[in-house]
Amino acid sequence: MKTVLNTTKRWVANIKGQFSIPAEKIYELPRHWKQAVLLAIDLCFIPLAIWLAVLVRWGGLAYEFRVVDLLAMMLTMVFSAAFFLRAGLYRAIIRYMGQQAIVTIVKAVTVSAVLLALAIFLTGSGLPRSTPVIYWATALILIGGFRLLLRSFYHSAFNNNRLKAVIYGAGVSGRQLSNALFHGGKYQTVVFVDDDAALAGTVINGVPVYGSNQLPALTKEFAISYVFLAMPSATSHRRSEIIDQLEGLPVYVKTVPDFADLMSGSAKVEQLQDIELADLLGRDAIAPDPKLIDQCIREKVVMVTGAGGSIGSELCRQIILCQPDELILFDISEFLLYQIVRELERAKAKEAHNVRITPLLGSVQNRRRLESVMTEFAVNTVYHAAAYKHVPMVEYNVVEGVANNIFGTLSAAGAAVKAGVDHFVLISTDKAVRPTNVMGASKRMAELVLQAFASKYNSTDFCMVRFGNVLGSSGSVVPLFRQQIQNGGPVTVTHKEIIRYFMTIPEAAQLVLQASAMSQGGDVFVLNMGEPVRIVNLARRLIRLMGFEVKDKANPKGDIEIHFTGLRPGEKLYEELLLGDNVTGTDHPKVMRADEALLPEKDIDLYTRQLQVACDNNDCEVIQQILQKAVPEFNPKDGISDAIWTRRFKNGVIEASDAEDNVIAGNFPKSS
Hints:
CATH superfamily of the largest domain: NAD(P)-binding Rossmann-like Domain
Number of domains: 3
CATH topology of the largest domain: Rossmann fold
Number of helices: 23
Largest sheet: 9 strands, mixed
Mean pLDDT: 78
Oligomer: single chain
CATH class of the largest domain: Alpha Beta
Radius of gyration: 35 Å
Shape: elongated
């Protein structure tokens, strides 16, 4: 018996194979040719349906057709064809045929039956009076059924080339996604799975529904390649649980857009995307307080420095939703500024906001430029996001890193005081806490500068916001890991023990916007970000969620390897958010206020003057020494990696006896 079944399966597969190429050629024919063929087939179906109707009425072949009967048939064919064309019966693409096309077929066949009745009456045909009624049913079966068969044949012929997928969620979004995939050409929905036990055993659009606990077995049984999460309104906690469940399966996990994007119309169900970055955190996103966000923005003039960067651009997206009077975008990059302005103008037109958007080019180190902008536009609130943030890049460009991060903040804060700005918020980083690199030390120095301004001036409220790594920002590990996985690996991690705090770009931006409202002057705000994430675990999780297996000693047959490249210059294994334990709460339950040591104004003046001279002389060793005095917690674990400094050392410009112990040679990447 088993042999017979296998033989039958091979025979069916062979038949499908023989017809698959002709089917493709038929579907590639010009559309008007296919419409003409379909019309010809319908014209054959009309006399066949009439003959079948008479056959059913007489119960046999006893009726003999006369000339007037044939004339009635001809009239029905001609006028039915004319109506079919006018009704748009051939405009519908059969493989996409839906409910509206079926309604059109029913209307067309109904009119054809009425035309047959009129033809019988006008020609004096002897066809039975019940013929039009029976004809209506037979014609509907022939004309409509033929189209349904064609659609079924198309999808069965081309489903073999599709990737098999499971839709997780049999609700409205899941059904919409199933319809979109059915008419698409890439994925085939094999089954639905859902947490609702009442849906198990039902069928949606011809696709069976199973319980979510059966997913591992279904993955093996149907050779599933993809799982699509169609649960846009699920809580973050539930989504995290589902992703944990899917992580061990050999499938690529994608998700439909966020519920808010679907409701606003900015995204469609079928626009599948990779797992959201927030889902990788393993914690719920921290909800903002709208009142705090609005307080320093609504109906005010707001300025964002570094507006084209990852954090700056997200700040702009959220600020425009709070409807300020005017939004000033300040950036040194013409290209990034152009991009964010275009995006904001589209959002402004869509939401019908009246916000004035003003893009301005300039460097934050140019104090006169900043003063004129803040004064002429009567800026109320400044969000200072212009900074160099990539640790290795600043290590290779020490002078520019210090100049931008410290003197840029000094210029922006001074301009804010001169222009009478109400609120000034500095975007800082967890790398400013006990820094081991120039970037972290420069950001801590920027914090000290701002705290000195806060203690001296009451006219402008200064504060700073400190957070960890931002998922999805430029240079973030997640986009890099995804690219490496898509390229077949390996995924590069600097150290197997390295851990980081993570948050999403919207969370970071919302924290910044709320901080300005909670500030009492000189505050350092930090976010309760939960437990830190081990980077290698994040890499492993991403590999599995993209449908691959980690290749290592325990699994030599895996797909993607993880290579440990070693810590980069200035990089720490662990990051911290606080310098001490003196922390108080705020109006937001997840935002804390840190009370940290200040530098007297005279010391700030002294160190900044010394840094300016050292930067002018490109003396990286002196820069490092000054930063260690200004930031006592700064403990550089590596020597100087600045590209110009190391080249001077190699060329003998710097005396070896003075600097050889403080120079790292060969760490600057060679150009390819």
